[in-house]
TrEMBL record:
GO function term, MF aspect, one: metal ion binding
Protein's UniProt name: Probable GTP 3',8-cyclase
Note on how the cofactor is bound: Binds 2 [4Fe-4S] clusters. Binds 1 [4Fe-4S] cluster coordinated with 3 cysteines and an exchangeable S-adenosyl-L-methionine and 1 [4Fe-4S] cluster coordinated with 3 cysteines and the GTP-derived substrate.
DNA-binding keyword on record: no
Family: Belongs to the radical SAM superfamily. MoaA family.
PROSITE patterns in the record: MOAA_NIFB_PQQE, RADICAL_SAM
Binding site for GTP: R15, K62, T92, K153, R255, L256, R257
Origin organism lineage: Archaea, Methanobacteriati, Methanobacteriota, candidate division MSBL1
Length: 309
């Protein structure tokens, strides 16, 4: 049974961080808004939590990290979740290890993938991530397309002075040419230590969106996904993800998060309202898990509100 929060918003998607480890070191990373934790959920524990989440109307699960592909049991996790009443199982990955594992993941029930790609230039890629592995990522994208994952989304974070000029044009061409969806993401200031990076690299998506709007065949709004606008082109799409100071984004947010240490997290931007869901799992209390979901959903509130506009 669907449960709405105190602002009338349903909670239909669960974004689960399964590890804090990552094989890249992107200088802007918000770590999914998570602070360091000293415990990690097993595959079985994740599945038990998701199962109860479905009772509250959650039917979409996104697995994230850190980097989800550094966990050896990712296939097991995907397999267990896809047995549940979930209609969409996806991952967000840097793509480095995707080529090696995507076939197994697809067989286990993975429906689709978001792959982070901020640049097509090897030097810039290394500057952003600390590793010279762009070729591996591009191979990973091709492998994901080959096994038929659909849609594949490319997550491109707009960084002032790094990829905001011709690079974005190249990425659009690359993405539209492959039938993937390009998601242009605004840099967010989530953790206090990201403040300086935000000041230096944040760039509004408005000017690029204006250009895209003029060229697109049509525009659509994903009301059930933070009211994101997507621009349709013959054979492709570009989606705009601009959360900062955007009350519409929050008003239409349907997402609950889970940290790798097993805390339900009502909002990316906050850590003062987490709810421990792993302890009731370890105590074998289904009612305790239900209670944790109820509490977390009741703690959901729009971070950016209309008054702030
Ligand atoms: N390692 C995986 C990956 O690269 O996709 C999953 C974790 S990563 C934190 C998930 C997404 O968050 C990536 O697409 C990344 O670009 C985005 N991201 C990271 N830091 C961000 C920030 N400060 N603002 C906005 N998006 C950010």
């Amino acid at each position: 049974m669907e449960m709405k929060d105190n602002y009338g918003r349903p909670t239909t998607s669960l974004r689960i961080s399964i590890t804090q480890d990552c094989d890249l070191n992107c200088f802007y990373c918000h770590n999914e808004g998570c602070e360091k934790e000293d415990r990690e959920m097993t595959a079985d524990e994740i599945a038990k939590i998701v199962e109860i989440g479905t009772e509250f109307g959650m039917d979409k699960v996104k697995i994230t990290g850190g980097e989800p592909l550094v966990r050896d049991d990712l296939t097991e996790i995907i397999g267990a979740i896809s047995q549940l009443n979930i209609k969409d199982v996806s991952i967000t990955t840097n793509g480095v290890k995707l080529g090696e594992k995507v076939e197994d993941l697809a067989s286990a029930g993975l429906d689709r993938a978001n792959i982070s790609l901020d640049t097509l230039d090897s030097e810039t890629y290394e500057k952003i991530t600390g590793k010279p592995v762009l070729d591996k990522v591009l191979e990973g994208i091709d492998s994901a397309l080959d096994v038929g994952l659909h849609p594949i989304k490319l997550n491109t974070l707009m960084l002032d002075g790094i990829n905001d000029g011709e690079e974005i044009e190249r990425l659009m061409e690359y993405s539209l040419g492959r039938g993937t969806i390009l998601q242009l993401i605004e840099l967010e200031k989530v953790l206090p230590e990201n403040q300086k990076i935000y000041e230096k690299y944040h760039k509004s998506l408005d000017p690029i969106e204006e250009k895209i709007r003029k060229r697109a065949d049509d525009v659509d709004t994903r009301w059930l996904m933070q009211a994101r606008r997507k621009y349709l082109f013959n054979g492709g799409e570009i989606e705009i993800v601009n959360p900062m100071h955007n009350s519409e984004f929050c008003k239409y947010c349907t997402r609950l998060r889970m940290t790798s240490g097993g805390y339900l997290k009502p909002c990316l931007m906050r850590n003062d309202n987490l709810v421990d869901v792993l302890t009731p799992v370890r105590n074998g209390s289904k009612d305790g898990i239900r209670k944790a979901f109820e509490t977390a959903i009741n703690r959901r509130e729009p971070y950016f509100s209309e008054e702030e506009k």
